[in-house]
Amino acid sequence: MTEVTEDVHGLRKRSGVVTAPDGLDLGIRPGEERAPPVERGRGGSTAVEILQGHRSRDAGTVSALGAPPRPPTVVGVPGPKSSGRMNRHPPH
Fold it and tell me: How confident is the model over 2-51, as pLDDT tens digits?
């Protein structure tokens, strides 16, 4: 049996009165492409954002290659506290 690279147990995220996903369990093996097994509007995009490290979770465990997901680091992309303006060309 192939080792699971992404492992999710009991994933839950609450936003106001809505809880979605609510108790998601999912295992992804190397080479698999899977979508969270949820109905439309029931937290699939939120689950993917949590797996990618873009959102926090309220409950459950998430691991990618045995470690918790971390937000991606991209050089040159403004962060959430930035004004959104970037210098495309440095001054000479």
Answer: 677 888 899 999 988 988 889 989 888 888 887 777 777 788 888 888 88
Residue spans of the domains in the chain: they are: 1-92
Q: State the average pLDDT over residues 80-84.
A: 52
Hey, which bits of the chain come out as E strands?
A: 6-15, 18-28, 59-64
Q: List, edge to edge, every strand of the sheet that includes 59-64.
A: 18-28, 6-15, 59-64
CA–CA separation, 16 and 64 (whole Å): 28
**85: its two tokens:** 């303006």
Q: Determine whether 64 is exposed, middle or buried from the number of CB atoms within 10 Å of its CB (0-12, 13-18, 19+).
A: middle
